């Protein structure tokens, strides 16, 4: 059965979340979407689904992350994913399983960024409220996604503690499973554009809302697999359709940051118009520090290599520790 049923151990005994109806206590109006009509939002969804992807945001949803029970690795994976594709990841947020917070965050992110991914809150229990909250954010209803349900029945393994489970017989267990395939639905958009199946051996869909909100599970192996399989869908919409990504050059220097700060300030001024960022990172208790060039203009960056090496008294390396002297216990 879907990994959420066996791998996510949530505190089912904790008090239910207090949901405040959006009519009496609306989420903060930080996005123009708050004032749009359904037809306007549909037009926005169509535009969002086809425009070039320059920027991205990641929304991690879960009380278990904020409470320290679960360590978030999905945002780190997504950061590397975006870097490899040449997408500028502009924002990562972690919020609670709270309807008003989810509503506000997805409206704002959908309006501000080209490609938005959410993680968590789409399992079978009472505190998995991501689908219904995102639906509410854009004035949509939840609807049973029949293709996802059929794939679930075909691919999900029965749990050993539910030997007599019947997909055709109403039961609390079936109701719980159906929560995972009741997706936000916009009747004006083709259904195949609202839920994407990216792997033949997985029933889990990537629900797409307002054209650029992609709803993924919080289980890391599922999150990572779905994103990796989604990549072919994204490549045609990238600035560089070959997905060559962003380049990062590392320089190891024995000089302290204070010694190279004036040069790096001047270098950053010259590099910025070429889309290249200059960074400096101290390595505490190490004898060498790191300078970086990050950007998509590889020829310009390569042209700067001799200059940077000369001015920081260092060398371009493939790893930060490449030129570190042996530690005392290695001598």
TrEMBL record:
Superkingdom in the source lineage:
Eukaryota
One BP term from GO = flavin-containing compound metabolic process
- Gene3D superfamilies attached to this UniProt entry: MoaB/Mog-like domain
All residue ranges annotated as the MoaB/Mog domain in the record: 57-237
User: Which InterPro entries does the record associate with it?
Assistant: MoaB/Mog-like_dom_sf, MoaB/Mog_dom
- Which segments carry the region annotation Disordered? 311-331
Task: Drop me one GO molecular function for this one.
Answer: FAD diphosphatase activity
Protein name listed in UniProt: MoaB/Mog domain-containing protein
What organism is the protein native to?
A: Aspergillus cristatus
């Amino acid at each position: 059965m879907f990994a959420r049923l066996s791998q996510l151990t949530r505190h089912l005994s904790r008090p239910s979340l207090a949901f405040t109806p959006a009519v009496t206590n609306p989420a903060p109006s930080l996005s123009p979407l708050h004032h749009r009509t359904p037809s306007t939002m549909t037009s926005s969804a169509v535009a969002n689904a086809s425009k070039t992807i320059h920027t991205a945001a990641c929304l991690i949803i879960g009380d278990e992350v904020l409470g320290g029970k679960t360590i978030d690795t999905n945002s780190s994976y997504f950061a590397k994913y975006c870097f490899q594709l040449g997408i500028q990841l502009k924002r990562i947020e972690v919020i609670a399983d709270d309807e008003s917070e989810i509503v506000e965050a997805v409206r704002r992110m959908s309006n501000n960024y080209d490609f938005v991914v959410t993680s968590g809150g789409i399992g079978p229990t009472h505190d998995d409220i991501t689908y219904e909250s995102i639906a509410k954010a854009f004035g949509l209803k939840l609807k049973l996604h029949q293709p996802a349900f059929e794939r679930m029945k075909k691919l999900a393994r029965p749990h050993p503690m539910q030997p007599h489970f019947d997909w055709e017989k109403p039961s609390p267990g079936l109701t719980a499973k159906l929560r995972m395939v009741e997706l936000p639905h916009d009747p004006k958009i083709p259904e195949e554009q609202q839920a994407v199946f990216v792997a033949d051996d997985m029933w889990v869909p990537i629900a797409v809302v307002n054209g650029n909100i992609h709803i993924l599970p919080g289980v890391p192996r599922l999150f990572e697999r779905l994103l990796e399989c989604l990549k072919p869908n994204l490549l045609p919409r990238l600035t560089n359709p070959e997905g060559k990504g962003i380049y990062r050059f590392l320089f190891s220097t024995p000089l302290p940051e204070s010694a190279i700060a004036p040069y790096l300030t001047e270098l950053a001024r010259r590099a910025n118009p070429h889309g290249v960022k200059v960074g400096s990172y101290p390595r505490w208790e190490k004898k060498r520090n790191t300078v970086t060039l990050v950007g998509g203009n590889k020829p310009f960056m390569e042209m700067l290599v001799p200059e940077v090496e000369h001015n920081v008294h260092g060398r371009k390396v493939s790893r930060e520790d490449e030129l570190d002297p042996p530690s005392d216990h290695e001598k």
